[in-house]
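Morning, I've got a small favour to ask if you have a moment. You're getting the sequence in one-letter code plus the fold written as C-alpha coordinates. Thanks so much in advance, here it is:

===
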Amino acid sequence: MMNNAVIVGGGPAGMVLGLLLARAGVEVTVLEKHADFLRDFRGDTVHPSTLELLDELGLGERFDALPQRRISSVNAVLDGGTLQIGDFGLLRSPRPYVALVPQWDFLDLLAEAAAAEPTFTLIRNAEVTGLVRSGDRVTGVRWTDRVTGEEHTLEAALTIGCDGRRSVVRAAAGLRGRAFGVPLDVEWFRLPREADDPVGGLGRFTRGQFAVMIDRGDYWQCGYLVRKGGDGPLRALGIDALRRRLARLIPFTGDRVGALRSWEDVSMLDVRIDRLRRWFRPGLLLIGDAAHAMSPVGGVGINLAVADAVAAARHVAPALRAGSASSVPLARVQARRWLPAAVIQTVQRAAHHVLLSRSLRIDPDAALPERTALPAPVRFVQRHPRLQIVPAWLFGLGVLQEHAPAWARRAPAADGGVIVGSTS
Protein backbone atom coordinates (compact mmCIF):
# COMPACT_ATOMS: atom_id res chain seq x y z
CA MET A 1 0.00 0.00 0.00
CA MET A 2 1.33 3.42 -0.93
CA ASN A 3 2.19 5.78 1.91
CA ASN A 4 3.94 8.48 -0.09
CA ALA A 5 2.93 12.07 -0.78
CA VAL A 6 3.42 14.42 -3.73
CA ILE A 7 3.41 18.17 -3.17
CA VAL A 8 2.69 20.49 -6.09
CA GLY A 9 4.50 23.80 -5.70
CA GLY A 10 7.82 24.64 -4.06
CA GLY A 11 6.75 27.83 -2.30
CA PRO A 12 6.85 28.33 1.48
CA ALA A 13 3.89 26.01 2.13
CA GLY A 14 5.21 23.27 -0.14
CA MET A 15 8.78 23.35 1.12
CA VAL A 16 7.84 23.47 4.81
CA LEU A 17 5.35 20.62 4.36
CA GLY A 18 7.90 18.59 2.41
CA LEU A 19 10.48 19.06 5.14
CA LEU A 20 8.06 18.10 7.91
CA LEU A 21 6.73 15.01 6.14
CA ALA A 22 10.28 13.86 5.38
CA ARG A 23 11.20 14.25 9.04
CA ALA A 24 8.24 12.03 9.83
CA GLY A 25 9.74 9.36 7.59
CA VAL A 26 7.18 9.80 4.78
CA GLU A 27 8.36 9.43 1.20
CA VAL A 28 7.59 12.88 -0.21
CA THR A 29 8.24 14.47 -3.60
CA VAL A 30 7.93 18.21 -4.23
CA LEU A 31 7.29 19.23 -7.84
CA GLU A 32 8.49 22.78 -8.54
CA LYS A 33 7.57 24.35 -11.88
CA HIS A 34 10.67 26.52 -12.18
CA ALA A 35 14.39 25.80 -12.31
CA ASP A 36 15.08 27.88 -9.19
CA PHE A 37 13.38 30.12 -6.66
CA LEU A 38 14.63 33.40 -8.17
CA ARG A 39 11.43 35.26 -8.87
CA ASP A 40 11.01 38.93 -7.99
CA PHE A 41 8.21 40.68 -6.11
CA ARG A 42 7.22 37.69 -4.03
CA GLY A 43 6.19 37.98 -0.40
CA ASP A 44 9.34 38.44 1.68
CA THR A 45 7.98 39.12 5.17
CA VAL A 46 8.67 36.37 7.71
CA HIS A 47 6.67 37.00 10.88
CA PRO A 48 7.34 35.96 14.51
CA SER A 49 5.22 32.80 14.23
CA THR A 50 7.35 31.48 11.37
CA LEU A 51 10.58 32.61 13.03
CA GLU A 52 9.62 30.61 16.14
CA LEU A 53 8.89 27.59 13.94
CA LEU A 54 12.34 27.82 12.35
CA ASP A 55 13.90 27.79 15.81
CA GLU A 56 11.88 24.68 16.68
CA LEU A 57 13.11 23.00 13.50
CA GLY A 58 16.74 23.81 14.35
CA LEU A 59 17.02 26.27 11.46
CA GLY A 60 16.95 29.57 13.36
CA GLU A 61 20.70 30.17 13.31
CA ARG A 62 20.94 29.40 9.60
CA PHE A 63 18.04 31.76 8.95
CA ASP A 64 19.75 34.50 10.98
CA ALA A 65 22.77 34.21 8.68
CA LEU A 66 20.68 35.21 5.65
CA PRO A 67 20.76 38.86 4.51
CA GLN A 68 17.76 40.52 6.09
CA ARG A 69 16.17 43.59 7.62
CA ARG A 70 14.18 43.43 10.86
CA ILE A 71 11.11 45.50 11.67
CA SER A 72 9.84 45.80 15.23
CA SER A 73 6.99 48.22 14.56
CA VAL A 74 4.44 49.09 11.88
CA ASN A 75 4.40 52.75 10.85
CA ALA A 76 2.10 54.75 8.62
CA VAL A 77 3.22 58.05 7.09
CA LEU A 78 0.21 60.37 6.80
CA ASP A 79 -0.05 63.97 5.64
CA GLY A 80 0.21 65.18 9.23
CA GLY A 81 3.18 63.00 10.22
CA THR A 82 4.22 59.44 11.06
CA LEU A 83 2.13 57.19 13.31
CA GLN A 84 3.06 53.86 14.89
CA ILE A 85 0.10 51.51 14.64
CA GLY A 86 1.64 48.17 15.63
CA ASP A 87 4.43 47.22 18.04
CA PHE A 88 5.88 43.70 17.77
CA GLY A 89 8.06 44.43 20.79
CA LEU A 90 4.96 44.02 22.96
CA LEU A 91 4.58 40.37 21.96
CA ARG A 92 5.63 37.58 24.31
CA SER A 93 7.71 35.98 21.61
CA PRO A 94 11.40 35.09 21.42
CA ARG A 95 11.33 36.73 17.98
CA PRO A 96 9.35 39.99 18.44
CA TYR A 97 9.97 41.37 14.95
CA VAL A 98 9.33 40.80 11.27
CA ALA A 99 12.27 39.69 9.14
CA LEU A 100 12.45 40.94 5.55
CA VAL A 101 14.30 38.19 3.67
CA PRO A 102 14.44 37.47 -0.06
CA GLN A 103 12.05 34.58 -0.53
CA TRP A 104 14.52 32.70 -2.72
CA ASP A 105 17.01 32.63 0.17
CA PHE A 106 14.32 31.40 2.54
CA LEU A 107 13.25 28.66 0.13
CA ASP A 108 16.85 27.62 -0.56
CA LEU A 109 17.35 27.20 3.20
CA LEU A 110 14.27 24.97 3.46
CA ALA A 111 15.31 22.97 0.39
CA GLU A 112 18.78 22.35 1.82
CA ALA A 113 17.34 21.23 5.15
CA ALA A 114 14.85 18.93 3.46
CA ALA A 115 17.52 17.45 1.18
CA ALA A 116 19.26 16.13 4.29
CA GLU A 117 16.28 13.82 4.88
CA PRO A 118 16.54 10.48 3.01
CA THR A 119 12.84 10.36 2.11
CA PHE A 120 12.71 13.83 0.47
CA THR A 121 12.90 14.53 -3.27
CA LEU A 122 12.66 17.89 -5.03
CA ILE A 123 12.11 17.86 -8.80
CA ARG A 124 12.55 21.20 -10.55
CA ASN A 125 11.22 22.23 -13.97
CA ALA A 126 8.25 19.98 -13.26
CA GLU A 127 5.00 21.49 -14.54
CA VAL A 128 1.92 19.67 -13.28
CA THR A 129 -0.71 19.34 -16.00
CA GLY A 130 -3.42 17.23 -14.38
CA LEU A 131 -4.49 14.76 -11.73
CA VAL A 132 -4.55 10.98 -11.81
CA ARG A 133 -7.76 9.43 -10.48
CA SER A 134 -9.10 6.06 -9.50
CA GLY A 135 -12.85 6.46 -9.28
CA ASP A 136 -13.50 9.55 -7.19
CA ARG A 137 -10.10 9.36 -5.50
CA VAL A 138 -7.04 11.36 -6.58
CA THR A 139 -4.08 8.97 -6.84
CA GLY A 140 -1.34 11.24 -8.15
CA VAL A 141 -0.43 13.80 -10.79
CA ARG A 142 0.68 14.09 -14.39
CA TRP A 143 3.60 16.41 -14.99
CA THR A 144 5.84 17.55 -17.83
CA ASP A 145 9.59 18.16 -17.69
CA ARG A 146 9.91 21.73 -18.97
CA VAL A 147 13.46 21.06 -20.19
CA THR A 148 13.03 17.80 -22.11
CA GLY A 149 9.27 17.94 -22.76
CA GLU A 150 8.88 14.41 -21.40
CA GLU A 151 5.57 13.59 -19.74
CA HIS A 152 5.44 11.69 -16.46
CA THR A 153 2.95 10.23 -14.02
CA LEU A 154 3.61 10.17 -10.30
CA GLU A 155 1.27 8.11 -8.13
CA ALA A 156 0.84 8.95 -4.47
CA ALA A 157 -1.36 8.14 -1.51
CA LEU A 158 -1.85 11.86 -0.98
CA THR A 159 -1.52 14.83 -3.31
CA ILE A 160 -1.18 18.29 -1.76
CA GLY A 161 -1.73 21.41 -3.85
CA CYS A 162 0.52 24.27 -2.73
CA ASP A 163 0.64 25.97 -6.12
CA GLY A 164 -0.75 29.37 -5.25
CA ARG A 165 -3.74 31.50 -6.09
CA ARG A 166 -3.81 30.30 -9.71
CA SER A 167 -3.63 26.68 -8.64
CA VAL A 168 -3.62 24.13 -11.44
CA VAL A 169 -4.47 21.46 -8.87
CA ARG A 170 -7.53 23.35 -7.65
CA ALA A 171 -8.78 23.82 -11.22
CA ALA A 172 -8.17 20.17 -12.12
CA ALA A 173 -10.02 19.00 -8.99
CA GLY A 174 -13.01 21.20 -9.76
CA LEU A 175 -12.94 22.71 -6.27
CA ARG A 176 -14.89 25.94 -6.06
CA GLY A 177 -14.77 28.73 -3.57
CA ARG A 178 -16.12 32.10 -2.65
CA ALA A 179 -14.47 35.19 -4.10
CA PHE A 180 -14.62 38.48 -2.20
CA GLY A 181 -14.58 41.76 -4.06
CA VAL A 182 -11.27 43.62 -3.90
CA PRO A 183 -11.11 47.31 -4.87
CA LEU A 184 -7.41 47.51 -5.68
CA ASP A 185 -4.39 46.16 -7.51
CA VAL A 186 -0.72 46.84 -6.80
CA GLU A 187 2.07 48.05 -9.08
CA TRP A 188 5.34 46.48 -7.89
CA PHE A 189 8.77 47.90 -8.76
CA ARG A 190 12.22 48.69 -7.39
CA LEU A 191 13.87 52.00 -6.55
CA PRO A 192 17.46 52.54 -5.42
CA ARG A 193 18.00 52.99 -1.68
CA GLU A 194 20.45 55.52 -0.24
CA ALA A 195 22.33 55.19 3.05
CA ASP A 196 20.42 58.01 4.77
CA ASP A 197 16.95 56.70 3.80
CA PRO A 198 14.56 55.44 6.49
CA VAL A 199 15.32 51.91 7.73
CA GLY A 200 12.85 49.02 7.58
CA GLY A 201 9.68 49.88 5.75
CA LEU A 202 6.99 52.48 5.50
CA GLY A 203 3.44 52.87 4.30
CA ARG A 204 2.47 56.25 2.84
CA PHE A 205 -1.26 57.03 3.00
CA THR A 206 -3.16 60.05 1.76
CA ARG A 207 -6.47 60.73 0.06
CA GLY A 208 -6.36 59.08 -3.34
CA GLN A 209 -2.87 57.58 -3.12
CA PHE A 210 -1.20 54.78 -1.19
CA ALA A 211 2.29 53.34 -1.41
CA VAL A 212 4.37 50.82 0.52
CA MET A 213 8.17 50.72 0.54
CA ILE A 214 10.09 47.71 1.91
CA ASP A 215 13.77 48.12 2.76
CA ARG A 216 15.81 45.49 0.88
CA GLY A 217 19.24 46.86 1.79
CA ASP A 218 20.50 48.43 -1.42
CA TYR A 219 17.05 48.95 -2.95
CA TRP A 220 13.42 49.56 -2.04
CA GLN A 221 10.75 47.08 -3.04
CA CYS A 222 7.80 49.36 -3.69
CA GLY A 223 4.08 48.88 -4.10
CA TYR A 224 1.83 51.61 -5.48
CA LEU A 225 -1.89 50.92 -5.08
CA VAL A 226 -4.35 51.58 -7.89
CA ARG A 227 -8.06 50.99 -8.25
CA LYS A 228 -9.03 47.55 -9.52
CA GLY A 229 -8.75 47.78 -13.28
CA GLY A 230 -6.69 50.97 -13.04
CA ASP A 231 -3.46 49.48 -14.37
CA GLY A 232 -4.34 49.98 -18.04
CA PRO A 233 -5.40 53.66 -17.74
CA LEU A 234 -2.32 54.46 -15.65
CA ARG A 235 0.03 52.82 -18.15
CA ALA A 236 -1.66 54.75 -20.95
CA LEU A 237 -0.49 57.98 -19.29
CA GLY A 238 3.13 56.89 -19.65
CA ILE A 239 5.75 55.99 -17.05
CA ASP A 240 6.31 59.66 -16.21
CA ALA A 241 2.85 59.80 -14.60
CA LEU A 242 3.91 57.18 -12.06
CA ARG A 243 7.22 58.95 -11.49
CA ARG A 244 5.47 62.27 -10.77
CA ARG A 245 3.02 60.71 -8.34
CA LEU A 246 5.75 58.91 -6.41
CA ALA A 247 7.96 61.98 -6.15
CA ARG A 248 5.09 64.03 -4.79
CA LEU A 249 3.76 61.30 -2.47
CA ILE A 250 7.19 60.36 -1.03
CA PRO A 251 9.50 63.34 -1.65
CA PHE A 252 12.80 61.57 -0.86
CA THR A 253 12.25 59.34 -3.93
CA GLY A 254 12.24 62.34 -6.27
CA ASP A 255 15.93 62.00 -7.15
CA ARG A 256 15.65 58.36 -8.13
CA VAL A 257 12.28 57.77 -9.77
CA GLY A 258 14.16 57.99 -13.08
CA ALA A 259 15.27 54.41 -12.36
CA LEU A 260 11.83 53.47 -13.71
CA ARG A 261 12.84 53.66 -17.35
CA SER A 262 9.61 52.22 -18.73
CA TRP A 263 6.57 50.20 -17.72
CA GLU A 264 8.65 47.08 -18.31
CA ASP A 265 10.21 47.85 -14.91
CA VAL A 266 6.78 47.57 -13.24
CA SER A 267 4.81 44.41 -12.47
CA MET A 268 1.09 44.49 -11.72
CA LEU A 269 -0.23 42.27 -8.91
CA ASP A 270 -3.87 41.29 -9.41
CA VAL A 271 -5.06 41.36 -5.80
CA ARG A 272 -7.59 38.68 -4.93
CA ILE A 273 -9.26 37.35 -1.82
CA ASP A 274 -11.01 34.01 -2.08
CA ARG A 275 -11.51 30.90 0.00
CA LEU A 276 -12.49 27.37 -0.96
CA ARG A 277 -15.62 25.98 0.62
CA ARG A 278 -13.92 22.60 0.78
CA TRP A 279 -10.15 22.18 0.78
CA PHE A 280 -9.99 18.47 0.08
CA ARG A 281 -11.21 15.49 -1.89
CA PRO A 282 -10.30 11.83 -1.31
CA GLY A 283 -6.53 11.67 -1.80
CA LEU A 284 -6.19 15.45 -2.28
CA LEU A 285 -5.61 18.45 0.00
CA LEU A 286 -5.09 22.14 -0.81
CA ILE A 287 -3.40 24.62 1.52
CA GLY A 288 -1.97 28.15 1.41
CA ASP A 289 -3.05 30.48 -1.38
CA ALA A 290 -4.38 27.49 -3.30
CA ALA A 291 -7.07 27.19 -0.61
CA HIS A 292 -7.39 30.84 0.43
CA ALA A 293 -5.84 33.67 -1.60
CA MET A 294 -4.88 36.62 0.60
CA SER A 295 -4.52 40.35 0.06
CA PRO A 296 -1.05 41.89 0.59
CA VAL A 297 -2.46 43.81 3.60
CA GLY A 298 -0.37 42.80 6.60
CA GLY A 299 2.09 40.83 4.47
CA VAL A 300 0.86 37.67 6.18
CA GLY A 301 0.48 35.31 3.21
CA ILE A 302 3.73 33.39 3.76
CA ASN A 303 3.02 32.87 7.42
CA LEU A 304 -0.54 31.61 6.94
CA ALA A 305 0.72 29.21 4.28
CA VAL A 306 3.48 27.93 6.56
CA ALA A 307 1.00 27.49 9.41
CA ASP A 308 -1.26 25.51 7.06
CA ALA A 309 1.71 23.28 6.23
CA VAL A 310 2.47 22.61 9.90
CA ALA A 311 -1.15 21.71 10.65
CA ALA A 312 -1.31 19.50 7.56
CA ALA A 313 1.86 17.64 8.52
CA ARG A 314 0.63 17.08 12.07
CA HIS A 315 -2.60 15.48 10.86
CA VAL A 316 -1.58 13.57 7.73
CA ALA A 317 1.92 12.30 8.61
CA PRO A 318 0.69 9.65 11.09
CA ALA A 319 -1.95 8.46 8.61
CA LEU A 320 0.59 8.24 5.79
CA ARG A 321 3.07 6.35 7.92
CA ALA A 322 0.28 3.92 8.83
CA GLY A 323 -0.57 3.46 5.15
CA SER A 324 -3.93 5.25 5.42
CA ALA A 325 -4.76 8.56 3.73
CA SER A 326 -8.51 8.74 4.27
CA SER A 327 -10.38 12.02 4.15
CA VAL A 328 -10.68 12.18 7.95
CA PRO A 329 -7.30 13.86 8.66
CA LEU A 330 -7.82 16.09 5.60
CA ALA A 331 -11.07 17.40 7.02
CA ARG A 332 -9.28 18.08 10.29
CA VAL A 333 -6.73 20.26 8.49
CA GLN A 334 -9.46 22.47 7.08
CA ALA A 335 -11.27 22.54 10.42
CA ARG A 336 -8.07 23.73 12.10
CA ARG A 337 -7.00 26.33 9.53
CA TRP A 338 -10.30 27.75 8.27
CA LEU A 339 -10.74 30.18 11.18
CA PRO A 340 -7.29 31.83 10.96
CA ALA A 341 -7.72 32.36 7.20
CA ALA A 342 -11.25 33.70 7.58
CA VAL A 343 -10.26 36.12 10.38
CA ILE A 344 -7.35 37.61 8.44
CA GLN A 345 -9.39 37.89 5.25
CA THR A 346 -12.14 39.68 7.17
CA VAL A 347 -9.60 42.16 8.56
CA GLN A 348 -8.10 42.66 5.10
CA ARG A 349 -11.49 43.33 3.57
CA ALA A 350 -12.26 45.85 6.32
CA ALA A 351 -8.95 47.59 5.64
CA HIS A 352 -9.75 47.74 1.94
CA HIS A 353 -13.08 49.37 2.70
CA VAL A 354 -12.08 51.76 5.48
CA LEU A 355 -8.67 52.85 4.28
CA LEU A 356 -8.67 52.27 0.57
CA SER A 357 -11.85 51.83 -1.43
CA ARG A 358 -13.34 55.24 -0.71
CA SER A 359 -10.11 57.20 -1.06
CA LEU A 360 -9.05 55.46 -4.26
CA ARG A 361 -11.99 57.09 -6.00
CA ILE A 362 -10.31 60.49 -5.54
CA ASP A 363 -8.20 61.89 -8.38
CA PRO A 364 -4.62 60.87 -7.51
CA ASP A 365 -3.29 63.96 -9.28
CA ALA A 366 -5.31 66.33 -7.08
CA ALA A 367 -3.49 68.47 -4.53
CA LEU A 368 -2.39 66.60 -1.40
CA PRO A 369 -4.25 67.68 1.75
CA GLU A 370 -2.37 69.10 4.72
CA ARG A 371 -3.91 66.46 6.98
CA THR A 372 -5.95 63.30 6.45
CA ALA A 373 -8.68 62.29 8.89
CA LEU A 374 -7.73 59.11 10.72
CA PRO A 375 -10.13 56.16 10.72
CA ALA A 376 -11.76 55.62 14.11
CA PRO A 377 -9.81 52.38 14.92
CA VAL A 378 -6.49 54.16 14.28
CA ARG A 379 -7.50 57.11 16.47
CA PHE A 380 -8.44 54.70 19.26
CA VAL A 381 -5.09 52.92 19.08
CA GLN A 382 -3.27 56.26 19.19
CA ARG A 383 -5.07 57.14 22.44
CA HIS A 384 -4.22 53.72 23.94
CA PRO A 385 -0.70 52.78 22.74
CA ARG A 386 -0.73 49.39 24.49
CA LEU A 387 -3.38 48.34 22.01
CA GLN A 388 -0.66 48.29 19.35
CA ILE A 389 -0.15 44.71 20.49
CA VAL A 390 -3.45 43.77 18.77
CA PRO A 391 -2.33 44.23 15.12
CA ALA A 392 1.12 42.92 16.08
CA TRP A 393 -0.43 39.75 17.56
CA LEU A 394 -3.00 39.32 14.78
CA PHE A 395 -0.49 39.54 11.95
CA GLY A 396 2.66 38.47 13.81
CA LEU A 397 1.46 35.36 15.67
CA GLY A 398 -2.10 34.98 14.46
CA VAL A 399 -5.14 33.03 15.51
CA LEU A 400 -4.19 29.43 16.43
CA GLN A 401 -0.42 29.68 16.16
CA GLU A 402 1.12 26.44 14.92
CA HIS A 403 4.22 24.82 16.43
CA ALA A 404 6.40 22.04 15.07
CA PRO A 405 5.37 18.51 16.09
CA ALA A 406 7.79 16.83 18.49
CA TRP A 407 8.98 14.40 15.82
CA ALA A 408 10.02 17.27 13.52
CA ARG A 409 12.04 19.27 16.04
CA ARG A 410 15.82 19.44 15.91
CA ALA A 411 18.53 21.17 17.89
CA PRO A 412 21.03 23.29 15.92
CA ALA A 413 24.41 21.63 15.46
CA ALA A 414 27.71 23.35 16.24
CA ASP A 415 28.54 23.66 12.52
CA GLY A 416 25.31 25.52 11.76
CA GLY A 417 23.48 22.43 10.52
CA VAL A 418 20.92 20.47 12.50
CA ILE A 419 21.21 17.44 14.73
CA VAL A 420 19.22 14.65 13.14
CA GLY A 421 16.89 12.80 15.49
CA SER A 422 14.57 9.85 15.36
CA THR A 423 11.21 10.08 13.58
CA SER A 424 9.65 7.39 15.75
User: Anything to note?
Assistant: DSSP finds eleven helices and 21 strands in the chain.
